Amino acid sequence: MLRFDEGTLVHELARLAPRARVAFAALCAERLVPTYEDFCRQAGRGNSLTLEQMLDRVWKHVLGIDEMSAEDIRGEINRAMDLIPGKGEALGLDEQAYADDAASAVAYTFRAMESGEPQEAAWAARRAYEAGDYYVTTRLGIEDEGQVLRHPIIQAEFARQRQDLQELFGITEEPGQVFKRLRTRAKADGRNFFAPPL
To answer: Model pTM?
Structure first.
């Protein structure tokens, strides 16, 4: 059974190149974007297009296509924080928690870009785990911690994070091709984030 071990994850992320570390955080955020879109549809607020465009900027930066200045990165952190729904206002929607996780994961991605700290990327990964945890406990009604951890939705996200790390460590080809391939996979996984794997 896979577990979320933040200390080990931070240690592993510290061994990655800075751009690969940011890519890892962005992959976690990519998988959560559809949950933010669901929130926008349900609540009639938020801006999922802006969140997607922000991740586009991250990928252009890590691919070296359009590198961001420190001032640009700081501005994007603030924009991501502004996209967190409610700011303490409970809207009575489960989707609000997932949207919070999605926007926060994007903010952590930019913070990883700004500081280079592996902890920021680990916090993006934690947000993906927490989104799954919230779904399993509230939507599926599973309260036992062991059962939650063993649930296929949780195990699938842990496996995705582990696979992302392995592929980022194993880059032997042009990094840009790896980043593009991993992003395509993350976007596909995000469309079925809460569906147990077959």
So the answer is: 0.95
Note the maximum CA span of the chain.
Answer: 47
pLDDT by residue (tens digit) across 17-46? 999 999 999 999 999 999 999 999 988 888
Query: Which one of 3.20.20.20, 1.10.10.10, 3.10.129.10, 1.20.1590.10 gives the CATH number of domain 6-189?
Result: 1.20.1590.10
Look at residues 108, 43, 114, 113 and name the one whose alpha carbon lies nearest to residue 81. 108
Please give the angle made by the CA atoms of 161, 139 and 42, to the nearest 5 degrees.
90
Q: Are 155 and 196 in contact (CB under 8 A)?
A: no
Sign of CA dihedral 187, 191, 196, 198: negative
Query: Which residue carries 């949780």 as its tokens?
Result: 154
Q: Which residue type, as a one-letter code, is found at position 37?
A: E
3-state secondary structure of 191: coil
Structure tokens at 43: 């609540």
